[in-house]
Specification:
By secondary structure, this protein is an alpha/beta fold. The chain folds into three domains: 68 residues, Winged helix-like DNA-binding domain superfamily/Winged helix DNA-binding domain (Arc Repressor Mutant, subunit A, Orthogonal Bundle); 101 residues, 3-Layer(aba) Sandwich (D-Maltodextrin-Binding Protein, domain 2), CATH 3.40.190.10; 97 residues, 3-Layer(aba) Sandwich (D-Maltodextrin-Binding Protein, domain 2), CATH 3.40.190.10. Helices cover 40% and strands 20% of the residues. The chain is built from ten helices and twelve strands. It has a five-stranded mixed β-sheet with strand order 4-3-5-12-6, sandwiched between helices. The chain has a five-stranded mixed β-sheet with strand order 9-8-10-7-11. Strands 1-2 form a two-stranded antiparallel sheet. Helix 1 crosses helix 4. It is globular, with a radius of gyration of 23 Å. The N and C termini lie far apart (58 Å).
Length: 299
């Protein structure tokens, strides 16, 4: 400990263990052994004179003091990461951006288009990290975010990329034969944990009865998971039209029932007002606006 500051390795070991709830999982993330992480965290507690974790067999839990300290350590580690990105962007090593993204939109829409940005701005490195929930930029090491909302976040600037538009039911064509009548009775309904009422709202929009059995289907955290489940023949899911319309046109996916659920939310690109927009960020924003405008998938 130097001037009261614990060893950085010990702080990283503690933060990872607190976040993941396991010495083994923290060791895997940090590319260390279980015993090394355990010694780091135990040594940190001894140096501080404060119990940070309780250990019950192979499980660990944060004490009240540990939970508060973990949040503060996480904030400072993320700020250190952001400062490092900033230093690199100002050096002769090139410019860099760290963008928080939604995983499905990143993999299906953004990533296929990024090579076009790299061809035009080869000196700007764009790093992506997944965030599915709203956050405050002051607490996270991001220059900007692409997110899903009804309006742009408070205390940020940016642009609306495009409206989500509507959700429609999709499944593989082979499941269509399992329908009872012209509806979707007999099909397993797949749900999104982030949109638990989507199916209920879809049925209401079609003036159809939502029976309790519909709620019994599997739940997935991401659209990419739901789409993978649909392709595997596990059931029918509500998906944004712009994500599946090409597959519907190609015949690899089908719509087992007419009717859509109109969505108020849109996809936005934003960054904090408190920070001066860099040239790299301005270039990325301009490129994103053009990419969204010219996207053939958006309806």
């Amino acid at each position: 400990m130097r001037n009261g500051i614990p060893n950085l390795g010990a702080l990283q070991a503690f933060e990872a263990t607190a976040r993941l709830g396991s010495f083994s999982r923290a060791a895997e993330e940090l590319s260390l052994t279980h015993s090394a992480v355990y010694r780091q965290v135990t040594g940190l507690e001894q140096r501080l004179g404060v119990q940070l974790l309780t250990r019950v067999r192979r499980r660990v839990a944060l004490t009240d003091a540990g939970a508060e300290y973990a949040a503060r350590v996480r904030h400072h580690l993320e700020q250190l990461e952001k400062d490092t990105f900033g230093l690199v962007s100002r050096s002769g090593m090139g410019r860099s951006l760290h963008i928080a993204v939604l995983p499905t939109l990143a993999t299906t829409w953004l990533m296929p288009r990024l090579p076009d940005f790299q061809r035009a701005h080869g000196d700007i490195a764009v790093s992506l990290s997944v965030r599915t929930l709203p956050f405050q930029f002051k607490d996270h090491p991001f220059d900007a975010a692409i997110y899903h909302a009804t309006q742009i976040w408070p205390d940020t600037a940016g642009i609306k990329l495009f409206d989500e538009g509507e959700l429609l039911p999709v499944c593989i064509p082979e499941l269509m034969a399992q329908r009872q009548g012209d509806g979707m009775d007999g099909l397993t309904h797949l749900h999104m944990t982030s949109r638990p009422d989507a199916w209920r709202q879809w049925y209401q929009a079609q003036n159809k009865e939502y029976i309790p059995a519909i709620s019994g289907g599997p739940r997935y955290e991401l659209f990419t998971m739901s789409l993978a489940a649909v392709r595997a023949g596990l059931g029918v899911a509500l998906m944004p039209r712009f994500l599946v319309q090409d597959q519907i046109a190609a015949g690899t996916l089908a719509t087992p029932a007419a009717g859509v659920l109109k969505v108020r939310e849109a996809y936005f690109f934003g960054y904090p007002l408190a920070s001066e927009r860099s040239e790299a960020l301005a270039s990325f924003e301009s490129w994103l606006a053009k990419a969204a405008h010219s996207s053939k998938e958006i309806v």
